[in-house]
Design brief:
Radius of gyration: 19 Å
Structural class: alpha/beta
Number of strands: 7
Oligomer: single chain
Number of domains: 2
CATH architecture of the largest domain: 3-Layer(aba) Sandwich
Largest sheet: 4 strands, mixed
CATH topology of the largest domain: Rossmann fold
Helix content: 40-55%
Shape: globular
CATH superfamily of the largest domain: HUPs
Length: 250
C-alpha cells in the first residue's frame, strides 16, 4: 500500500507497485487542510496514470497539539496522524505501508521518518539508494507526468517554526500560492506568519518579479486575507546567503 502524495517519489512507487502486484496494488492519500487542492488533484492524476486503486482518507493533524505548536517536529505529528488513520481502517490495516522517501532524503533531521519507522513503514527507494535524479529518470521512462514536477511539501512547511499552525493560516497560504501559480511561476513559496508574507520565487524566474502588475494583484489578495505586510526575498527560492527582503510594492 503506497502512501501517495502529489509528488514524483510516491507516484513512482505507485507505478512500480502496479508492475509488481497488478490489481492488488493500492494507494492511499490523506486529505486535510495542509494538502492543497492542487496537490490533491496531482495525487489523483498520479493514481490514474499508474492504474492503481486509489483511496482517500480524512486526516486531522490540526487536532494534534504537537502539530499546531509547530516547534520543529511538526512532520512527526503529521506523519503519525496519516499512518495512524490508515492503520485504523480495517481494510488497510493488513497491508504494509510503503512511502516515497528516497536516498536524497537521508540528509538532515527528518522527524517524519521517525514516525514512519515507529509504524513499520517501508521506503524501498531509500533502501536501495535511489536518489532524486534517479527517481525522475525512472519516472520519465514510465511516462509519468510528474517526472519533472517541482517538490511541493505540505502547506504548513511555509509557516515559520514557533508560529502556531491553524486552518486560517493554511487557507491563506494556499490562496496566495494559487495566485503565484496562475501568474506563471513554477517554483515558489508564500511564507506566512502573523500579519506578513514573504514570497520566494525560483532564481531563474526572478526577472519576472519586476512586473508590478502581479505584485499589485498579490498584495490586493493578501490584504483581503488579512495580511498587511508583503515582502519579496530578493535571493530567490533557496538562494545563498541571508534573507534579503524588499517590499513587494515599493
Amino acid at each position: 500500500m503506497v502512501a501517495l502524495s502529489g509528488g514524483v517519489d510516491s507516484a513512482l512507487m505507485a507505478a512500480i507497485s502496479v508492475e509488481v502486484l497488478g490489481s492488488d496494488a493500492v494507494a492511499v492519500t490523506g486529505i486535510s487542510p495542509s494538502l492543497s487542492h492542487e496537490e490533491q488533484e496531482a495525487a489523483r492524476l498520479s493514481a490514474r496514470i499508474a492504474g492503481i486503486r486509489h483511496l482517500e482518507v480524512a486526516t486531522s493533524e490540526l487536532s494534534r497539539p504537537g502539530y499546531r505548536a509547530n516547534a520543529g517536529d511538526r512532520c512527526y505529528h503529521c506523519k503519525s496522524e496519516l499512518y495512524d488513520v490508515i492503520l485504523s481502517v480495517e481494510e488497510l490495516a493488513q497491508h504494509t505501508i510503503i512511502d516515497g522517501a528516497q536516498a536524497s532524503d537521508d540528509s538532515g533531521d527528518r522527524p517524519g521518518m521517525k514516525a514512519s519507522g515507529e509504524r513499520g513503514v517501508k521506503s524501498p527507494l531509500r533502501q536501495f539508494g535511489i536518489d532524486k535524479p534517479q527517481v525522475r529518470e525512472m519516472a520519465l521512462r514510465r511516462g509519468l507526468p510528474s517526472w519533472d514536477r517541482p517538490a511541493r511539501p505540505c502547506l504548513a512547511s511555509r509557516v515559520p517554526v514557533g508560529t502556531e499552525v491553524d486552518r486560517r493560516l493554511l487557507q491563506q497560504i494556499e490562496a496566495l500560492e494559487a495566485l503565484l501559480s496562475g501568474e506563471g511561476f513554477s517554483i515558489y513559496r508564500a511564507r506566512c506568519g502573523g500579519d506578513r508574507v514573504v514570497v520566494e520565487i525560483d532564481l531563474e524566474q526572478l526577472e519576472q518579479c519586476a512586473d508590478d502588475r502581479w505584485r499589485q494583484r498579490f498584495e490586493a489578495l493578501a490584504r483581503s486575507l488579512g495580511i498587511s505586510e508583503c515582502w519579496l526575498d530578493a535571493r530567490g527560492y533557496g538562494g545563498p546567503g541571508p534573507v534579503r527582503l524588499e517590499p513587494l510594492i515599493g
